[in-house]
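can u pls check wat happens w/ FE2/S2 (inorganic) cluster
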Amino acid sequence: MYQSSDLKTDGFLATSRTDRWWFEPLWTGLGFLSFVVYTTWAMFQGDNYWWSAGQDGFGGYLSPFYSPLIFVKEAVNGSAPLDHAWFGRWPEWWPALIPASPAILILAGPLSFRMTCYYYRKFYYRAYFMTPPACAVGGLRPKKYKGETALLVFQNLHRFTLYIALGFVVILTYDGILSLFRGGKLGFGVGSFILIVNPILLAGYTFGCHAFRHLTGGNKDCFTCPNGKPTFRYRVWRGVSWLNGRHMFWAWISMLWVAFSDIYVRMVASGQWIDLNTWGN
Ligand code: FES
């Protein structure tokens, strides 16, 4: 137990702490960096994001990095059929210098939600900006640091990016249902399991958001008024609060799983892995 008078935080990394305080900023910093590197690579590929064993009709596995499909470029390995795109064929005006990848069109949405999340801010302020790297550890002290009132003012958009994230939960749930069909025939495969778990984990993260918690109960003074009984809204708020208390867990598990979902679809679509399923292909 530290008394505030025991703490020495004058100077970069100065501390009286004797525990492994550096471990958390290290693993979170490296973990997120790996995710960003992989996501950027996958985003620019523009191929192997869809698998339906060559069968037409309703159903197939779609990588969550590529969903929703706004446009589809045809005649690309592992690309989705044209009728899965919201607006059809890839536009001719697309600049030749930028890869024709559907992921480029949509990844800013979920990314804006994660990058402004209160938990993510905590870890990247610590791991990357070192302001400070941990509690009771001396950090970098920029002379004119104005935090979220100046350079980082965009962080305040988080409450609006929540609606984008809610939209993605709906879209990816639809993709989970899509994964239960192949050529219109109902079945189940390892990919179905992965793509159904994906929106569940994302929902755990999204519904535990601080902004969502405020939406469900933050503007209420009394949950049991007027008749003294807990209201439905109170129960929802309790559920959201339970998720909120474990927000870090949901943030990481949903992020890792969404990357794993892309890897799985990519490997199956490129013929590297075999999908075990009830369709027999
Ligand atoms: S605070 Fe983390 S998602 Fe909103």
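The mean pLDDT is 92.
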